[in-house]
Amino acid sequence: MDNLLPKKVWATAALWFMVALYGIPVLWFLLSSFKPAGELFSYPLTIFPKQPTISGFTQAWTSFDFSRYFGNTLIVAVSATLITIVTSATCGYALAKYTNWWLRAFTICILATTMLPGEVILSPLFLIVRDLGLYNSLAGVVAPSVITATGTFLFRQFFLSVPRDLLDAARIDGSGELSTFIRIMLPLSRPIIMTLAIMSFQWRWNDYIWPLVILNDPKEFTLQIGVASIVGAENVNWSVLLGASVLSMIPLVVIYLIFQKYVMNADLSAGLKD
């Protein structure tokens, strides 16, 4: 017992150190967004603003087409997330519950794609999207992101843990394959759906490289491209840039606060037995 106490103290201290290591820069970033431009680089540097102001937020919202960027990003993130969940769930179910040699080979190919950096396939993706006539459109941003190896792998591993007897019982009761998938398997996989929804929404909301490659019209720009456009060639309005960056984070924080309880309290084996 005496030996356990120092270990708990050190473990707790290490966790608080990590919290401070990650939290202090984020806190400084948030507080700096309320500083006027002249105070950002005044010496000595201060964490708390001496004269708090929201001018950076208002200028970011009014000086740029921020509402349009917000709307475009929301369309991309929501549509890509919904399609990603459907495609990943169906693909993961097929890979988990149907046995065939080419399905196993297909699973290995899908897992192999997780080892490829996204930048490696930018060029072929661009050619395909351009030939499909989706260049410079939000559909072109969404199309390559609807199937992810991570989502497929998450669903496959979950469906592997579901006893086959459950499926056999449903089939004996007259349930078809599609009905079994929609009415039994999808509700069981709700924790995976919530987890993938949060991850996919975050990926698409923060995506910068692909929208930058595929979009050319400022009216179609997403939020990350819009924020990057605030940085001028010779001058950077740091107050506006900080305000725009904080505004772009708000939806992600809200999404996480709403759905994190479903993920943290998820019982992946609820209602099942081996």
TrEMBL record:
Residues 70-259 form the ABC transmembrane type-1 domain. It comes from the Bacteria. It is a multi-pass membrane protein. GO terms for cellular component: plasma membrane. The keyword Membrane applies. The keyword Transmembrane helix applies. One of its GO terms (biological process) is transmembrane transport. CDD domains: TM_PBP2 (cd06261). This is Alpha-1,4-digalacturonate transport system permease protein. It comes from Nonomuraea polychroma. The lineage of its organism: Bacteria, Bacillati, Actinomycetota, Actinomycetes, Streptosporangiales.
